[in-house]
Amino acid sequence: LQLEMVPVVDVVERVVSALQLQASQKRIQLTSELPAHTVPLVEADQALLQQALHNLVENAIKYTKPDGKVLVRVQVQPVGVVFQVIDNGSGISPMDMPRLFEKFYRGAQQGPKEERGTGLGLAIVKSIAERHGGRAWAESQLGKGSTFYLALPLKQPKKSVEGVAQ
Questions:
Q1: Is 27 left (phi over 0), alpha (psi -120 to 50) or beta?
Q2: Residues paired with 33 in a beta bridge
């Protein structure tokens, strides 16, 4: 990891602006909601964090019908920051939920075949979260939409000489 102190607001703004055209072409309202108080810096690999959030937002756009909504929300907690990507898309079958973050897993896909992915996007998100000592998970209701979460600690654990977290 190329760790640096990354402004959370910058990451969200970059991802949202990068995907705004894709969202508007599909008539999807893509917005972000950041806490009123100062959003902290998070110790992370900026490129990887951006990639993870990008994957989540791009998926939300892909599986949301035209005239839908996608919201990127950031919540600051005492130990870390939680990125939420909330959509009112097709939702995910309860049968698919346990395997959602597995490599190459593509559930009972909704929507046109050309929109189907490789099944790697969420596995990459999970890997990036875990490499930062965080986690990724989802909640969904079929036909109502989904919320994907990416939680990261504000600081990475310090490594001792043996490479073990202290």
A1: left
A2: 73
| Residue 62 neighbours by CB under 8 Å, 6+ apart | 111, 115, 117
- Two tokens, residue 165: 């977290």
CA atoms of 110 and 66, how far apart (whole Å) = 14
Question: Do 62 and 117 contact (CB within 8 A), yes or no?
Answer: yes
Taking the chain (166 residues) in runs of 10, the rounded mean pLDDT of each run is 92 96 96 82 94 95 93 90 94 84 67 56 91 94 92 79 45
39, amino acid identity: V
- In this prediction, residue 116 carries a pLDDT of 54
Whole-prediction pTM: 0.87
Q: How far apart are CA 12 and CA 74, in angstroms?
A: 8
To which H or E segment does residue 74 belong? strand 69-76
Q: What are phi and psi of 132, to 5 degrees?
A: -95, 5
Distance between CA atoms of 82 and 127, rounded to whole angstroms? Answer: 16
Are the beta carbons of 83 and 138 closer than 8 angstroms? no
What CA–CA distance (Å, rounded) separates 2 from 50? 13
